[in-house]
Predict the structure of Pteridine reductase.
Amino acid sequence: MRNVLVTGAAARLGRAIARELHRDHRVIIHYRSSANAARALVEELNAIRADSAAAVQSTLGNKADCEALASEATAQWGGIDVLVNNASAFHPTPIGSADEAAWDELVGSNLKAPFFLSQALAPSLSRDNGCIVNMADIHAERPMPQHTIYCAAKAGLVMLTKSLALELSPRVRVNAVAPGAILWPEKEDEAVDSDTQAGILARIPMGRTGREADIARTVRFLVSGQDYITGQVLAVDGGRSLNI
């Protein structure tokens, strides 16, 4: 049985991905501060199949953090075969009010951590034809107003996906998933008002937001059995990127 590390896996899309991959993988649930949610998920998964899930905490704030997480994750069951870089900060940074702390947080979580974690896990991933799936965004190519730093970081993650696919081939495949409107932000300061939501929905050809399962099943598609797909970014957005 292969081993998966999913970052930011205690809630929302990360949790859905972890549950989906747990069907036939052992799963490391990475979390930053959501300890209770991470432990509850581990208990849920281990109740389905004993010794099939574990939780590991890390802020992923720097190279040393990424290396420590990689070391702890590989020690759990003797290696990591699949890395899903899902952990991501997201908030607006209007020009004129953005500061260096916002830059460090958004670029750090969306680009720096995926790079250093991928680098640290490359030996383990290479050992048995592993793969990396990065969670990108349709706004990596089409900017979102007032989110310049976030969009730039996700654009960097798309290029990181392609660069790693080239550099780590043929032993490791590297792809990305670019979600559209899947889940509205939960934090009050990131909330999307009803009029804005309606405007976004009106521009989605499929006429609805996506579901967590849409993303989780796409990650499974890229992880399981697709051994000739690498360096690709797959949009899962209901056609939203056709109509931005």
